[in-house]
Amino acid sequence: MLTFLLLLLTACGGTKLSDEGNDVSGQDWIVENFTSTTESGEQLSLKDLEGKVWLADFIFSNCTSVCGPMSAHMSKIQQLLEDEDVDVPIVSFTVDPERDTPEALKKYADQYGANLTTWHFVTGYSFEEIKELSVNSFKSPLEKPMKGDDQFSHGVYFYLIQNDKIIKTYNGVKDTPIEAIVQDAKALKKDMQ
Predict the structure, then answer these.
(1) pTM above the 0.85 mark?
(2) How far apart are CA 96 and CA 68, in angstroms?
(3) Where are the domains of the chain?
(4) Which cysteines are joined by disulfide bonds (predicted)?
(5) Which CATH architecture has domain 28-192?
């Protein structure tokens, strides 16, 4: 009976994702609308990602701890996606929009060999706006630096998103399941076709 039920669920188009990461598809994690400016000075909003599977994370260019490993892992993910000819946009939101100008983000992106046709580093909003997006949509705390420090406290997860719904989260720093993220993105894209 259990085998029959599993076959029935698979036959009904249920997308089989990896066991890696945290499946939040059954929860109401919806990305609120946002407006931003890319490293190239172009506008990017949630509407531009409509009908797409995409990845997101939160970084800042002056980060001295987790952002480097996160961006290095995201770079590997982008390369694997390109190798398999899978178009999945990546959006890295800066949590330090005051200092992270488009020029600063372009310089940061270059350090990681980012292909800026599909990986966007975005700014152009206030700290309050990005904190609201981080907390409300991505369920991730975000705090300004402590007095005498310049390091923001932010989440270290990668988010796999379909349209505006967050499907899965993965640790972007430690034991990042790079291949599983690529396979999950491919599975979601196939499901949308």
Answers:
(1) yes
(2) 15
(3) 28-192
(4) 63-67
(5) 3-Layer(aba) Sandwich (3.40)
